[in-house]
Amino acid sequence: MKHAFAVTQLSILIAVLAALASYTGIYSEGGPGPHSIESVRGETVIIYGKGLYRHMSKEVAPQGIAQDYVTLYLAIPLLFIALIWARKGSLKGRYFLSGILGYFLVTYLFYLVMGMYNALFLVYVALLSMSFFAFALTMLSFEPRELPERFSEETPVKSTGGFLIFQCIAISLMWLGVVIPPLISGEIIPPQVEHYTTLIVQGLDLALLLPLGIIAGVLFINKNPFGYLLTPVYYVFLSLLMIALTAKIIIMGSEGQNTMPAILIIPSFGIIAMICTLYIFNSIREVKTTG
To answer: Where are the transmembrane segments (predicted)?
Structure first.
């Protein structure tokens, strides 16, 4: 793998700092406890009031803790497995490592721009920076023009590419269902904004992540070399992300929040994404290089 030393060092640092950040998010204590505030828009918002996320809303803070559990106990071990796999010269390992690094990149992008300022601000900055460069270097190790021949003729490009497009469109419609009704009614600002500046998750999903998934799916169906680059990576990232989202939904339900229909849709999408990932990986003709 090209840039193996740099990616290895960055991945180890990512694991260390992500362990620190997620452990602190899960187990930190202190704070005044739940209390209400009035936002600049005049809305009453219940604040979580405990631990690292004490200034986050009561609805959002538990979601961060749920994702911290997934990061600490699943994503970090998977990062080491992916790194070892990739360093052995495995093409599948590089795909897997790229997808896992993509998870860390997106996770700490959201933590940095959405999380209320806390003591780990510089840790989030470092994690986002290192995840970006490790992800970029790993992606640059691929030769897109050579990738189509590394896949068997039986690769399910239409079904896996089609599901990726469908899933991205479905989530786009779900987010538009949050944004558009207040615009039509004249209220403008959805209640989900709470005391935050804007809808960060919906905005970045609609602007970047969901269009990328649609483009990847279209390219894969058309057997474009960049489809063979993007789609396997996206599916690894998507599988891990859906596990994190499922954990968030479970903890939201335990807090008494209405989780329908997400409790049915998100786990289903996650299971299908993992099945698609397995089908794609089974179609890859392994070509090892020295790492």
So the answer is: 69-86, 95-113, 119-142, 163-184, 196-221, 233-254, 260-281
> SS3 for 151?
strand
Burial group, residue 143, by CB count within 10 angstroms (0-12, 13-18, 19+): exposed
Which residues 6+ apart lie within 8 Å of 177 measured at CB?
none
pLDDT at position 146 over 80: yes
pTM for the whole thing?
0.96
At residue 258, does pLDDT exceed 80? yes
Maximum separation of any 2 CA atoms in the chain, in Å: 60
Dist. CA 99–CA 93, nearest whole Å: 10
3-class SS letters over 191-246: HHHCCCCCCHHHHHHHHHHHHHHHHHHHHHHCCCHHHHHHHHHHHHHHHHHHHHHH
Q: In terms of Cα–Cα distance, which of 156, 112, 154 is closest to 130?
A: 112
Query: Cα–Cα distance between 80 and 59 in angstroms, integer?
Result: 32
pLDDT digits 0-9 by tens, 71-110: 999 999 999 999 999 999 999 999 999 999 999 999 999 9
In contact, 123 and 112? CB cutoff 8 Å: no
Tens of pLDDT, residue by residue over 16-65, are 999 999 999 999 999 999 999 999 999 999 999 999 999 999 999 999 99
Q: Which of 2, 127, 8 is nearest to 71 (CA)?
A: 127
CA distance 27 to 162: 41
The partner residues of 37 in beta bridges, in order of sequence, read 45
**Cβ contact 200:209 at 8 Å:** no
Structure tokens at 42: 């005049």
How is residue 59 written in tokens? 């609805």
